[in-house]
Amino acid sequence: MQETGKDYKKLLTEAIKKQIIILGPDITLAKARGIKKISVADDGTVTEISGDGEEIIAELVAKFRELSPISTKKTMGYLN
Predict the structure, then answer these.
(1) Cβ–Cβ contacts within 10 Å for residue 11, how many?
(2) Bridge-partner residues for 49, per DSSP?
(3) The pTM is what?
(4) What is the mean pLDDT of each run of 10 residues along the chain (80 residues)?
């Protein structure tokens, strides 16, 4: 695999693992696994990537943006 592919896997893995901390593993892994061009292990590690890394990152970001009201509620829930 090219070095660039490894970089994208690392970046995607970091993003997914950070979201696991915020949203929990169930929601995060479901969203990440909804992207057909990547394979994600149970711990959030991206094990395989096929296609344009930039497009995959954009798709992942879009999926997590859909959840922003949920994450805001979760992180701010202690104020209610």
Answers:
(1) 15
(2) 38
(3) 0.80
(4) 78 94 93 96 96 93 81 56
Angle at 70 between CA 66 and CA 27, to 5 degrees: 75
Residues sharing a CB contact under 8 Å with residue 75, sequence separation 6 or more, in sequence order: 22
Contact 8, 57 (CB under 8 A): yes
- Greatest alpha-carbon pair distance for the chain in Å reads 48
CA distances from 13 to 17, 27, 55, 76 (A): 6, 15, 15, 25
CA dihedral for 1, 34, 64, 17, sign (positive or negative): negative
At CA 42, angle to CA 36 and CA 44, rounded to 5? 70
Secondary structure letter of residue 53 according to DSSP: H
